[in-house]
Every structure is written in C-alpha cells, then in structure tokens.
Amino acid sequence: MLFSELNQAFYDPRANYGDGAPADLIKINDDQYLKFYESINNNKRIYTSNGELLVSDQRPDKYHSWDSQKNEWVIDDDQLNQKHQDIIDSLKMKALSEVIRAGTQISIISDRIELDDYSSEEDKANLSSSLIAWKKYRIACNNVSNGTSTELPSPPDA
Questions:
Q1: Is the dihedral of CA 6, 10, 12, 17 positive or negative?
Q2: I need a labelling partner for 44 at 20 to 30 A (CA). Which of 4, 59, 86, 142 fits?
Q3: Per-residue pLDDT tens for 5-37?
Q4: Residues 57 and 40 in one domain
Q5: Where does a domain end: 59, 75, 91?
Q6: E-state strands within the chain
Q7: 153 in a domain, yes or no?
Q8: Residue 99 falls inside a structural domain
Q9: Which stretches of the chain score pLDDT less than 70?
C-alpha cells in the first residue's frame, strides 16, 4: 500500500494514477496501513518526523487545523472566534427551544387553573407556584436567546 502524508490518503500500488499521483507517496506495510487507517478515521493525523511516520493526538475539535511545520494541532484567532460564536449560537438555539417548551407548560398549567382542573386547594397552590416558576424560567431563557444573558437556567422540572 502507498500513503500520501499531504493528502492523508492511501493508494493502491497496482493502480496507474498517471500524473494524478501525489508526489509524496511512500510505501507502507500492512500493519502501518491498518494503524493509519484507524487513526485517520479517529481524527488523528499521520506525519513524518525525523524520517519516521508518526500518529498525532486526536484533533481537539473541528476548529483546529494541522500545522505541518510544528507537527501539531493549532487553532488561529479566526477559528477561535468562530468556535466562541458557535457556542453562543448553540446556546441561543437551546434557549429558544426552552422558551417554546416553557410556553407549552405555562399554557397547560394556566388552563388547569382557569378550568378548576385540580383536586384540592393545595393542588391549586402547587399549580400557581409552578406557573410562576415556568414564567420566570421562560423570561430567563428569553434573555439568553436574545443575548442579554449567557447562562441557561435549570428548568423547573429538573
């Protein structure tokens, strides 16, 4: 089997690639092929150091790229900023989903109170308390979804 460090790809030595074959192809044995194949599929990089093929640590996340000069995973300022923005966007999406879920709970509890769908005054008090908790939760989640807060609260049913 042949391997291209640049492409992180394997090539069949019996195939005729013509001018399409990478210039950095090197012959590897079956054990290396199995090890490298598994490594590449586990987000690791195969690289050369002092003439020897080595396997990197796993790529930390999709924002890191391989620095072939340092032979390590690095993250630049643009990717770091993108990572932070993606975290914020994900949090906002989760918060918006929770606003919707809280709205559903509030509607159900409100309906039960309005229609006297409870068995005792204690049950009514619990429903009223739960209604207030869900409304506060919805407000807190809305603050996260619109960017005025950065911490998602625990839901009342947690």
A1: negative
A2: 86
A3: 999 999 999 999 988 999 999 999 999 999 999
A4: yes
A5: 75
A6: 2-4, 9-11, 25-27, 46-49, 52-55, 65-67, 72-74
A7: no
A8: yes
A9: none
